[in-house]
Amino acid sequence: MAEHPKSGNLQETRKHGALMSKTTTEMKTTDAADIESVLNDTLYGMGKYANASARIVEVFNEGSCDGKGAKKYVVELTKDEEAWPLNYIRWSFSCTSSIERTTVDVDGTPLKVSYGKTSDWVEDLEDIQDDDNTTVYSTIIFRYNKYSEQLGEADVYVPTQEITGIRYRLIPENQLITALTSFASWQNTINSEPFFGHSRGNVLCLGIDVEQIGIRPATNEHLIEMRYRFMTRPGKYRNSGGGWDSYTVWTDPVTGLIPADAEETDGAVLHSRHYNWKDFTILYNISEL
Length: 289
Hints:
This protein is mainly beta. The protein contains two helices and 18 strands.
């Protein structure tokens, strides 16, 4: 396809110097009036354009004044590129919080409360006598009240992050169901390696949202939008949870307090994991341009 003498133009949108989008308009001549073939040469061939459109702006006969020459079509082709190409992941982080109950402060010290007043007293009941005034027995009632320490609770805000990775991806023809099924392996897994600064076990994958965008006519590939969704739960044992694991600790049934040597006593602390491990850092490889 030959170049047409008419020039095109280039328009870029930038924010603080960063390229947000780029639109290129150019004129080309072609022998065929099939605009889709022009789009196939550009959009489908490279796959880097977010949008493309073509329209015929002129028809002429090449090398002839009598209209009998080869018919040529002048096509105006507009191509839009976005900041994030196909297959790369664009990340966003939003801060939120949850309210949880805790029995310790930031240093892990139990929230003990006590009531210091105590009372004890003795009440002597009158002697119980028989008919000849002989004392059979005496009843003495002792009462002793003591207010012991109790384990208090407090509401705390636990700051968390919602991490979302957005990716546009092409799925080959006849492989859509297989691909969608494979995405389920991400759901209900936690990070086996530190992920975006969060410690091992502190990031839960909620799953992958998937939406079908369309089908490429030239290749019959499915274009889908994927949203990787993660939720963090920071903290440490006996403070704000210690990630997505749970810790069940033996408490004194009378006072409700955790013994000081509970962690050193076999069976007093049960550490439970509720989600399978997965290495989320494999997504780093498709996040770098």
